[in-house]
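Thread: 1-deoxymannojirimycin complex, take 2
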Amino acid sequence: MTTPALLPLSGRRIPPLSLGTSSFPHHRATLRLSEKFILLLILSAFITLCFGAFFFLPDSSKHKRFDLGLEDVLIPHVDTGKGGKNLGGYLIHGQGHDEHRHREEEERLRNKIRADHEKALEEAKEKLKKSRDEIRAEIQTEKNKVAQEMKKKDSKPLPPVPIPNLVGINSEDPTDQDIREKRDKIKEMMKHAWDNYRQYGWGHNELKPIARKGHSTNIFGNSQMGATIVDALDTLYIMGLHDEFRQGQDWIDKNLDFSVNSEVSVFEVNIRFIGGLLAAYYLSGQEVFKIKAVQLAGKLLPAFNTPTGIPWAMVNLKSGVGRNWGWASAGSSILAEFGTLHMEFVHLSYLTGDPVYYNKVMHIRKLLQKMDRPNGLYPNYLNPRTGRWGQHHTSVGGLGDSFYEYLLKAWLMSDKMDTEARKMYDDAIEAIERHLIRKSNGGLTFIGEWKNGHLERKMGHLTCFAGGMFALGADGSRDDKAGHYLQLGAEIAHTCHESYDRTTLKLGPEAFKFDGGLEAAAVRQNEKYYILRPEVIETYWYMWRFTHDPKYRQWGWEAAQAIDKYCRVSGGFSGVKDVYSSSPAYDDVQQSFFLAETLKYLYLLFSNDDLLPLDNWVFNTEAHPLPVLHLANTTLSGNPAYR
Ligand code: DMJ
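Output below.
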């Protein structure tokens, strides 16, 4: 049987490899093999001879051989073209001259090595005479020098860009005395929070106001990056607390270092640090904030190195290794986390001229656009390896919230040019209204949570921000439904106010239900806490700006008084564990967002509208104001280089 190996597809016959039956081609091949073998033997004998002869040559000849080779390579100005490669008299003359030069060179090198050795020995002897502490101090000085050098290198000014129109950074005091006094009270609360943090928690991420020491949570890993300082800067600035602002700036300039071996939340670091630094930069014009924001953004970029480009939830700032939260469905990334980077990243590209940040967030958007959405809803979980949704849970509160917020704000921040973002927002909100928004038996409008085809009639404190979002998105909404969305915003504000008003402390619980006779009330113990969150006050402020209905100032003032009464302690402000108890326990944490958001929104609620007007500023999800970029006149959005 002919084996297929003998009849290859090309049709050319291959000689058999078998040594079995003798054939002419096989015989010829055997002869060629033995000829080759003899040639190989002669060649190897010749090489062995040359090698042996070399070892019998005098030393100087060996050096010359190697030096010549070296010179050919390393000394380009020697004209080897004329003499070096030639076998004529010129070469012989050149070799004699070279020999002399090489001997001199060798001598020089030997002397240098000797001198270096002697110097090192001397230094070592000197060192040994010194005490351990002296040696340590010297090492430290050297280290500092290197660190300073690196700092200088890192702090190179970024390319100048036209700064957008920054209107409304300052504003007149309110003319109404009552409003002025309320605003002053909020400023005093800010000072109390800041001063205590400064005294007891300075440089730590947050403050423990009862224990009077620093505090940190896993979102910042084991770092001490002064989260409260960065988060509070813009609030200090708009309140006119300029000494405090300078204290913060000084700390950031000297101490804020991102080369730490720490695993941090990409989302939290983006909204609090990058957002905070960018806002501080735009408000104050101090370059240091821009430089730090860009340095930090560079440290977050490795988080995007996933098979899909959907970033990991966490990244180690030093190694760049990323991973997801252990609790997230099927190793997924979280919608509210990877979907809340857009505003800051667009600003980073704008300020640096580097499209890398813009490309990262646009890639996320494009990927989301292509995906099927169950009932038009975005699930909270997306696997960054497979690009597939995890559990089909949808929420306008935790895990989903700021994704929707950033769609709307991307459109606003682009001076309404980014119509793609507006469309995605409109589509998402329509699906949310259809499937998640309901009226309770008592007539309260609430936003529930979608869990595997079932509506849970529960709303989180976090979800209360949506009242402000609906009001902010009313203008420009599809089918001219501005009135409808403003009304929806008002209804959510009302429901959230009820969740406060129905408690003992007049502070809202973390989550509340509309089930089995319950109306905006928490049942489980672990849903009754208030941790100084801003969302309800945020919605009051937006509603105030769009309607000027005095009830929003009234509700805001009620919340401010309750915070001052029940959360204030001598060491700062603390969250409380049960808003239905008249003597609640403290959680002993002064959250950084209390200074960034809660107190800022309260202050704005009692300020004139021309302080950070909403036509010119868009607040990120941590309440850091970023200016509207008039992208129609810049290269950013339309330029193919940025796609
Ligand atoms: C803040 O860090 C941000 O508002 C975020 O979007 C979610 N909530 C906290 C404060 O409650």
